[in-house]
Known about the structure:
The complex is a heterotrimer of chains A (137), B (328) and C (478). By secondary structure, chain A is an alpha+beta fold. Chain A is built from 5 helices and 3 strands; from the N terminus they run αββαβααα. Helix content of chain A is 36%, strand content 12%. In chain A, a hairpin with an 8-residue loop joins β1 and β2. In chain A, α2 (70-84) crosses α5 (123-133). Chain A starts with 12 loop residues before the first helix and ends with a helix. In chain B, 0% of the residues lie in helices and 55% in strands. The N and C termini of chain B lie close together (10 Å). Chain C is an alpha/beta fold. In chain C, α1 packs parallel to α9, α6 (111-121) crosses α7 and α8 (147-167) packs across α10 (206-221). Chain C has helices spanning 9-15, 21-24, 69-74, 83-89, 92-98, 111-121, 125-138, 147-167, 182-191, 206-221, 239-244, 265-274, 312-325, 365-381, 415-426, 438-448, 454-460; strands at residues 41-44, 50-53, 59-61, 104-109, 143-146, 176-177, 229-235, 250-251, 256-257, 261-264, 295-296, 301-304, 337-338, 344-351, 354-363, 389-393, 430-431. Chain C is globular, with a radius of gyration of 24 Å. Chain C contains 17 helices and 17 strands. The chains are: A alpha+beta (137), B mainly beta (328), C alpha/beta (478).
Amino acid sequence: MSQMIMNNTLIDSIDVFDIIRSIKDPEFPNTLEELNVVNEDLITVDNSTENDYCTIKIYFTPTVPHCHLAPTIGLCIREKLNLLLPKKSKIEILIKPGTHQTEDTINKQVNDKERYIAAMENKEIKKLVLECIEETE
Amino acid sequence: MPLELIGSISDGLCPERIWHVAWHPSGDILASCGNDKQIQIWAKEQNKWVLAQSLEGHEQTVRRIAWSPNGKYLAAASFDVTTSIWENTSSDPQDIEFTHVSSLEGHNYEVKSVAWDSTGTLLATCSRDKSIWIWEMQEDNEFECLSINSGHSQDIKCVAWHPTLELLASGSYDDTIKFWKDIDGDWECLYTLSGHTSTVWDISFNSTGDRLVSCSDDRSLLFWKYFEGADKWKNVCKLVDHSSRPIFSIDWSHLNDKICTGSGDDSISILEQDKSASTADSEQYKVTIKHEKAHNSDVNCTRWNPKYPNIFASCGDDGTIKIWKVIE
Amino acid sequence: MSGEDKFSSILKLTDLDYINPSQICIKPVEIEKTKPNGTSKIKIENDGSYVEVSEDGTEKTLEKATITLNDCLACSGCITSAESVLITAQSVQEFLTNINGTKTIVVTLSPQSRASLSNHFKLSPISVYKKLSTFFNQLGINYLFDSSFSRDFSLLESANEFVARYKKTIDLPLPMLASACPGWICYAEKTHGDYILPYISTTKSPQQIMGTLVKYYFSEKINKKPSDIYHVTIMPCYDKKLEASRNDFYSDIFNTKDVDCVLSTSEILDLFKDKEIDFNNLAETEIRDETFLNYDRANDKFIGVQGSSGGYLEFIYKYAAKELFNLDIQNKDIEYKVGRNSDFKETSLMVNGEKIFTFALAYGFRNIQNIVRKIKISTSTNKHCGYDFVEVMACPSGCINGGGQIKSEGGIKDNKAFTQDSENYYNDQLMRDPQNNLVVKEIYNSWLNGYFSQDSNTKLHTEYHRIEKSTNALNIKW
């Protein structure tokens, strides 16, 4: 169960994994953890910058090498983190190298601020993403 | 401190994320826009910035706004795929009263940028649909589409007109910058500038229009110079790893040639040409100020005041607008 | 060689660029979920098929998701012009496969394609036709028709439809917008479907009228079933392939399309290369059978109308002036006012100093935008938009410059001059008013019961359908 992390706590990769592990896959009735799409080992958190932000890097593994919903999974991961992390962190979400046919294309799209913000303004996409990140129990 | 904060607009007056700020040609009025779907117009009252008018109507984020050269019109590009045109219909020339006069439709996806040419008769808009539309303002505030330019292979992020010529530059997610010109009634792509290794977020001409600077997702700044003899734009200076994160905004002052940039690492930088290190073919530019933590989040836009030198405005994902002064 | 840049720019900008459906087409496929819980793995076999391995080890080969061209047309979320789907279904290879069967093969050549071949080989249109006859005879093709013939029907029906709209004897508004260009139609259905469709003429294009004539009139003459004829058209653009695939042009009863395959002019060049044909040195077969040709035997020339995109503006203008005001107008009497660019012009009929009606020509996306914008404003303000008829074509310079025409060897720079040359070859013809086409007259009498009659409305007119944007989040490209 994810909770709002307190403001003055430093975040680590376990905290990040705790938030994203229960995200539901848009296609299959399983969580990203169950499908091995996200893994604690593939998350790094860097608190060392002089600025007030921390940098989070998440690699994820799409279920199949041509999975067309990879960008949407990236969107779900970012949305949930934005909701539950206490202050703005710089989040980079990338495909685990070698696990997707068009990983460079998807990496660019998933990390383009204008693109993912515009995507979340689309009613249908927003609805789908919110369903995937909804906490059920 | 070489960069002084001389004004600030925040605390509940602004939306969560402010994408763009634009100075009225008089230098005394500032417009801003963001994810609250509105355009805010700010004026100075005694020493404070107050909200003069709020323009509503867009159904999604307003991404960019642009004043016409005479300040009478304001154009706004929105993610709702339309571009709105507003006219100051106040009888009192000192007053602000903008009315919606036209809606430019046609783009298939989000409109990312809008810009007026130096004469105020042409308007360019660009979109994720990979096209640039050139519009001409007619009497009775109607607009005629002059051209639909294809050429970029991806989303187009920004458009900027040359300061004097009828020449348009565009920056794209396809990592290139293209120049467009009307040749016998058909707009064609004259030059394509490659050099960035990722999305070009913003571009800016200098005051004489023979230099262009671009900033990118690849964290670098590229300076371009027009060589008349060869009729080519060439890269004359690269500042790579200028930032640790994408650089979203860049503006070249037409008053004193200084350059300001806003970055995803929350910092604002001021740059100038290093004349001592420059030659005919290779120019050097250096960072004279790097101001960290300028905002509490990504800096989305930095724009020089057109009338008062060394003053510029910035805005960001922290929902604030800041006015700065460069202390010499 | 990809056909990616061959569709009209209006289609390319309408909803997405070219996507290979096997990679990104995301038409949702229904999967039966037999197990609500538990994980299964999916492995990819060497032959590329997908096999689902459930927890207990049982394997099930998953069905390949296929899409048909109709899926593509109906779905606006992905593409209208799935390049690889279309190119495969209507390619030179498909053509060659199908002509080896038992069906009767009919090929219809458009005058624009003919002019393009003329310009490329530097031969007269008559020579092009006669050499093509020789080539097609060698391939076992039985008939080579000319869509200038079916265009006469399209012009007559359009003109009569305009007069009916003007007189308000039918409940459809003005301005009437030409309907022969499928790039324009697709764009209108997908982008402005909520208000523009009633303005579009219901008359079928020359390609589709020929389709109807071939499968339902000509078939009877040669004692064949509609499905026993394989009808191929040679057209100046790829958008015509889309048009031929519309559901409206498919008969459930006879299980056959009006037009089975569309080849572009440049694909015919590929066909020549494939068969190692030296076209210039082919013998010419004399024209014996004039069926569905607009041919003048005495002068050994083809017959047509002014205007390489079909001449809708001129013909309807003259026809309406006569029918409505008893005025005899010649082409030379029509004075144009050219707009911002050469692809936009307008002309008004003046009677006693009064403007009676205004016709315009709008080619290319930017000019179409302005027309559509004017109509939208007039629809909402209830004011006349300034035009009564607009000849709308998606391509700058019209059909002679279609995306499937043979391009100049010199590249884009020479294109304008090259297109003008094609235009000159196009005009190497005799002019004849469609009303004076005796064969057309005969068919109107025997088969259609008159201009714009109930029968001609059934056979020579069509409908348009608004295409909704996809609301499936899995399909939306961001």
